[in-house]
Amino acid sequence: MTQPAMPVPVDQHDGGPWRAAAARPARWKGPVAIAAAGLPAGLLWWLLAPTGLNLITRDPALAAGSNPGTWLPRDLVLAGLFLLAGCLSGVLTAGNRPARLTTATVVLAVAAGAAGALLAWGTGVLAGSWWGPAAEIPGSAGTAFSLRAYAMLLIWPAATALAIFLATVVSRPEPGQGGAPDA
Predict the structure, then answer these.
(1) Which of 177, 39, 31, 25 is nearest to 106 (CA)?
(2) What per-residue confidence (pLDDT) applies to 176?
């Protein structure tokens, strides 16, 4: 014989499906914060990368945008920032209960990662045009602070999706979700 369910006081349950819509947290705050992280990421890119302010190496040989040897390291600095931002975005989106993620939440987080990557790219290029040296050859795209490998823009959303996936796979199942029996 099963025991009847114990009533739970209203102030101690998790809200359930009957929770008022006004009490639900806004879904847009997380994606907006992820996309807005593109601004500091773009500034960091310009500060750290060769042909930008170059705070990593401070090598004057890497300051010239006309040097093709600086293009790959400049793109790789942005790729590293995108990888870090994507991993953080995915882990923060998954939170401590990744089994409760909805498809919409995951899609919004990945789309926000794409928007953040575009915002970071634009911010870095804008910072380079404002604070960087003038182009050595007017009209030459190779001398300006820019991104050469546009595929790098996919790293942030891909890392976000991968981090959410791994957080979901690695997480322990909630009680009643299957897996090991409750103790």
Answers:
(1) 31
(2) 62
In this structure, which amino acid lies at residue 111? A
d(Cα 153, Cα 114) in Å, to the nearest integer? Answer: 7
Three-class secondary structure of residue 127 per DSSP: helix
Give the per-residue SS3 of 1-25.
CCCCCCCCCHHHCCCCCCCCHHHCC
DSSP percent split of the chain into helix, strand, coil, nearest 5: 60, 0, 40
| Tokens standing for residue 17 | 């499906």
For 174, residues 6+ apart whose C-beta sits below 8 A from its C-beta are 97, 99, 100
Instruction: Say yes or no to pLDDT of 35 above 80.
Output: yes
Query: Which pair of tokens denotes residue 34?
Result: 């992820």
162 — pLDDT class (breaks 50, 70, 90): very high
Residue 114 vs residues 31, 32, 43, 157: alpha-carbon distances, Å:
10, 12, 17, 5
What is the length of the chain? 183
Measured CA angle at 37 (ends 36, 38), to 5 deg: 85
Q: pTM of the prediction?
A: 0.78
Percent of the chain with pLDDT over 70: 73
- Which of the 8 DSSP states describes residue 179? S
For the chain, what are the domain ranges? 33-170
Helix (H) / strand (E) element for 87: namely helix 71-94
